[in-house]
Design brief:
The protein is an alpha+beta fold. Helix content is 31%, strand content 22%. Its main location: cytoplasm.
Length: 410
Amino acid sequence: MKKEVVERFISYAQMDTQSNEDNETCPSTPGQMVLAHKLVEELKEIGMEEVQVDEHGYVMATLPANTDKDVPTIGFLAHLDTATDFTGTNVKPQIIENYDGQDILLNKELNVVLSTASFPELAEYKGHTLITTDGTTLLGADNKAGIAEIMTAMHYLIQHPEIKHGKIRVAFTPDEEIGRGPHKFDVAAFNASYAYTVDGGPLGELEYESFNAASAKISVYGVNVHPGTAKGKMIHSAKIAMALHLRLPAEEAPEYTDGYEGFYHLSSIEGTPEFSKLQYIIRDFDREKFEARKAYLSAVVEEFKNIHGEENIVLEMKDQYYNMREKIEPVRHIVDIAHEAMENLNITPIIRPIRGGTDGSQLSYMGLPTPNIFTGGENFHGKFEYASADNMVKAVNVIVEIAKLFEQKA
């Protein structure tokens, strides 16, 4: 199982599937469709049924029930794309057998070191097989580790028909990293009662609470004049943008918050005297506080419009997803089953809110309650990303155990 899940993961990780929020197509990049078709072929090879991919890159397949019991259909999902924060081109995964607990030199030429001082959790992985980057790209364990684990789990169940289970559906979706994963997902066609995204991080993560989330783009228009003759004429859009940003509470940013604390995050900024653009994400677990954050940003923008002109400051803000706890609490038993599955495998469940996005947030509001379970990856979205092959195997076992428990409890 370990060999299989690692080989699958590495083959997926080497494919460039970064999404692109500036592209309105679905999928937003062609590499995602290439991976989708690869997965279709692999699903057919292992014996899955009803395998299909639609024109938007959504892959679905079925593992039929092998029990006479009336078991709810459950699903397992992962996403095809990787994050936009750091390059995912030319990924070269490195395998470190029997990790010794010391600093890891990812790239000698560039002196990129995965250090125990910066990442003290590395000590927990002594003796593990680690998969790292070469220090020049992200790894893509978010979420290709999840894809590999679902594929390996389905293959294992097919090879072991003595393990009784109900009908299982799997799906691989595009564009999760840019918030569009479920936008064209056909919940009715998927036809599952409940599902799990395999999109978490370290061993034991089990999540059913997520942020309420919005995105905001503020465009600032100025007037550029030669600096030698600019007095009384230049309107410096970049300075206006900086002043606007400073009106947001500095301590309510990602680098100062954790747990259930929300934030404003300036995800990108670009500017010239003529034109500037601020990109934000707004996050809060509490719906009232979430709405208050959006209202405050709107009020700041209105204030700057009054000063600099209505037409010179433009705010585009839209909700992305909501806290899925509201939809999962009424069916809390699906969280309890995942909790029990982990305990059965001597894994300590870690239940905490997701301080990030997951397709499950939107899917839960679309009628498919979808908590999230771990993949075994760490440091997602950057060059220090890595995954434990040992914990990836444990994720495979959790998927299998969840399938078993649904059948046993039916």
